Amino acid sequence: MWNSTKITQLLGIDYPILQGPMGAGFFTTALLASVSNAGGLGSFGAYTLSPEEILEADKKIKEATNKPYNINLWVNDVDAALVNYPPEKLERIKQLFKPYFDELGVPLPDLSTDIPSKFEKQVEALFEIKPAVFSFIFGIPSKEILNESRRLGIKTVGAATTLDEALALEEAKVDAIVAAGFEAGGHRPSFLRPAQDSFTGLFTLLQQIKAKTNTPIIAAGGIADAKGIVAALTLGADAVQIGTAFLATDESGATPLHRQMLFSDESNHTTISKSLTGRMGRMIHNRISQNIAFETEVLPFPLQTKLIAPLKVAALAQGKTEMISFWSGQNTSSLKYHSANELMHALITETGNLIV
Predict the structure, then answer these.
(1) What average pLDDT does range 327-348 have in this prediction?
(2) Do the domain assignments include residue 203?
(3) Residue 280 φ then ψ, to 5°
(4) Which of 100, 152, 101 is nearest to 124 (CA)?
(5) Chain-wide mean pLDDT for the chain?
(6) CA angle 178, 120, 309 (to 5 degrees)
(7) Helix or strand or coil: residue 62?
(8) If you count Cβ atoms within 10 Å of the first and of the last residue's Cβ in the chain, which end, N or C, has fewer?
(9) Distances (CA, A) of 41 to 4, 284, 351
(10) What is the CATH number of the domain that holds 143?
């Protein structure tokens, strides 16, 4: 059976289809439950939330599904550059974005560089919840955290954008590795080298990791339909992780405008930019990403997010779509489902039909 793989056996799911973790308002219980209840693995991107918010959200998840699901956190959730960040540099970069604020008639926000990491406290909440899967990006948790995960029976999944990162994850004895190709939407979760030095496409990265590691592999980046699933499995993946196709469904927390953009011709033009959050991410190009070149210094993560947040709210309210950043992977040509349930059914049925 095509759907019986190392990953399905490891995670206790029926099909090797994982929903990409979504945070920052894109996650919904309905989306996670749609995927998990259909036999895949739904995911909860919790990196922006307090421990209390994670615990509260998990109560709703458990009411919606009794199937396995994943909670995703960021190991490195605050850039080191924020320590002793020069006030004059903060002001200079704010002025770089001031024309956009002026155009929308909103003031520049007051910003504080005192942003503590949430990660370790979030992990404490995760251990209280005991999800089937704990996935993480932007690094590798400490040995103590990984050991406690094993003791609690929580499977650990780390993301790699290069072979070296995959080897580091295998040395840490994670249960599975996400091979994160550069085609994927959202943040590029590199952690050994800068993201701009880690531009490996999924199919190359997948084969590199398969040849050099023994850990089960989850392929992510540019997969949106059954043909993509079959291609990834053929090249050695034990499962796939799909983001943009689920982001485009009505169950996701994306705004109606965002979902509309994913189905439009605009989504054929994605770009890599730091302008939204301070870390490299793939999104549909817009005026800000075009005007502020990738090489341009912006605020460290997540301070840049806090700078842009009121701008995004105002742009949405005023219909200034050319100033809004919409996350998207490179491959939107296969998008056709607005229902997560219909998408899962199609992925399962069509993959089975292709693998005979």
Answers:
(1) 97
(2) yes
(3) -60, 130
(4) 152
(5) 96
(6) 75
(7) helix
(8) C
(9) 14, 27, 17
(10) 3.20.20.70
Does residue 321 belong to any structural domain of this protein?
A: no
Cβ distance 35 to 42 under 8 Å? Answer: yes
- The token duo for 276 is 């939204």
Number of neighbours of residue 221 by Cβ within 10 angstroms: 32
The answer to the question of residue 295 being in a domain is: no
CB atoms near residue 120 (< 10 Å): 13
Q: SS in 3 state form for 6-38?
A: HHHHHHCCCCCEEECCCCCCCCCHHHHHHHHHC
- What's the pLDDT tens digit per position in 30-55? 999 999 999 999 999 999 999 999 99
Helix axes 119-129, 51-64, angle to 10 degrees: 30
The answer to whether residues 220 and 181 touch, using CB atoms and an 8 Å cutoff, is: yes
The 8-class DSSP code of residue 274 comes to S
Q: List 17's β-bridge partners, or say none.
A: 240
Nearest-CA neighbor of 53 among 126, 104, 151, 106? 126
Confidence of residue 23 (pLDDT cuts 50, 70, 90): confident
Closest CA to 95 of 280, 294, 298: 298
Q: Is the bond leading into 302 cis (omega within 30 degrees of zero)?
A: yes
Asked if residue 176 is part of any domain, the answer here is yes
Q: Which two tokens mark 324?
A: 């809004």
Number of CB atoms found within 10 A of residue 112's CB = 9
Left, alpha or beta for 238 (phi > 0: left; psi -120 to 50: alpha)? alpha
What is the number of structural domains in the chain? 1
pLDDT for residue 291 is more than 90: yes
Average pLDDT rounded to a whole number, residues 249-258: 96
Closest CA to 32 of 67, 75, 3: 67
Residue 11, both tokens? 């995670």
Q: 134: part of which helix (H) or strand (E)?
A: strand 133-137
Q: Is the pTM above the cut of 0.90? A: yes
How many residues belong to the chain?
A: 356
What domain range is 190 assigned to?
A: 6-77+116-253+337-354
pLDDT tens profile 218-229: 999 999 999 999
